[in-house]
Automatic annotation (TrEMBL):
Source organism phylogeny: Bacteria, Pseudomonadati, Pseudomonadota, Alphaproteobacteria, Hyphomicrobiales
Organism domain of life: Bacteria
GO molecular function: DNA-binding transcription factor activity; sequence-specific DNA binding
Family: Belongs to the LysR transcriptional regulatory family.
Listed InterPro entries: LysR-type_TF_proteobact-type (IPR058163), LysR_HTH_N (IPR000847), LysR_subst-bd (IPR005119), WH-like_DNA-bd_sf (IPR036388), WH_DNA-bd_sf (IPR036390)
Name of the protein described by the UniProt record: HTH-type transcriptional regulator TtuA
Role according to the record: Transcriptional regulator of the ttuABCDE tartrate utilization operon.
The keyword NADP belongs to this UniProt entry's keyword annotation: no
Length: 298
């Protein structure tokens, strides 16, 4: 069936769905309202289904039209994205992969700064917590949670992982806490916020308490648990309780005072976040510039 329906018909249908008005869709596509109507009628005839309900000047999608609209929009967006590397006006496109926590808490601002400084380079960020996707050699650069070595990537340390309990000043005040002298046993009675471990080496609240020189006797019962680390940090920022803070990832929040450390216990896990460049191929000029920028050597 697709070989009998021109791509233009789907573009016209998409515009009509977005505007719910054939005249406005025609103006965007530089064709007449009558031409839009003919193309929609032709598409309906080809598919054997009504796509719009017409009541005077008002349009609405039929159930069949609504299902098709969602699929057409997703397909056109995919095509637009696929064509991006071919129309950059000479811009080099590079890709970098990072976990959701690094992307949200650390990398985003630095990529924005790099974009302002390097208008000739387009950066595509892959955010994923799947280790195989992070370390895929399809990426130009990666940020990996590691101990310092990887068979396919040359790694340079960005952030050493040092974990401390943190909360917002509002939560500390509301609970009447002395943040600096809070003990581990006292922390177990607070509103604990945990997160899922996407990596076997990650440390969450239960593991953190268990590794203390004197682990608390009380059971660790988080009040909230999130699918990602960044969501746990966001909840702590909103004053919902206590979570683990990776000092390097939340350095700005600690410096600004939007999060404060609780007690004196800390854990250096021996892991960290490393910037990786390919071990067996050279970086492109744009990727090399981004590599230096993220290391703080623009």
């Amino acid at each position: 069936m697709l070989d009998r329906i021109p791509l233009e018909a789907f573009r016209v249908f998409d515009a009509a769905c977005r505007f719910m008005n054939f005249s406005r869709a025609g103006r965007e596509l530089h064709i007449t309202q009558a031409a839009v109507s003919r193309r929609i009628q032709g598409l309906e005839d080809q598919l054997g289904a009504k796509l719009f309900t017409r009541r005077g000047r008002n349009l609405s999608l039929t159930p069949e039209g609504d299902r098709l609209a969602q699929r057409v929009r997703a397909t056109l967006e995919y095509l637009e994205e696929s064509l991006e590397p071919f129309r950059g006006g000479g811009r080099e496109t590079i890709s970098i992969a990072a976990s959701s926590s690094v992307s949200h808490l650390w990398l985003g601002k630095r990529l924005k700064d790099f974009d302002n400084e390097s208008p000739s380079v387009s950066v595509r960020l892959l955010t994923t917590d799947v280790p195989s996707e992070l370390a895929s050699e399809a990426n130009d650069l990666v940020i990996l949670y590691a101990a310092g070595e990887h068979p396919r990537w040359n790694l340079t340390l960005l952030i050493r992982e040092n974990l401390v309990p943190v909360a917002s000043p509002a939560y500390v005040e509301r609970r009447g806490l002395d943040a600096a002298s809070l003990t581990a046993d006292a922390m177990t009675q607070l509103d604990l916020i945990d997160y899922e471990r996407a990596n076997a080496h990650w440390i969450s609240l239960r593991q953190w308490f268990a590794r203390l020189p004197k682990p608390p006797k009380a059971a660790i019962k988080p009040r909230l648990s999130f699918s990602t680390y960044s969501l746990a940090i966001d909840a702590a920022l909103r004053g919902e309780g206590v979570t683990l803070g990776s000092r390097g990832l939340i350095a700005e929040e600690l410096a600004s005072g939007t999060l404060v450390e609780l007690g004196t216990a800390q854990l250096d896990t021996g892991y960290g976040y490393y910037l990786g460049m390919p071990r067996y191929r050279s970086l492109t000029p744009g990727a090399a510039r981004l590599h230096q920028h993220l290391l703080g050597n623009p």
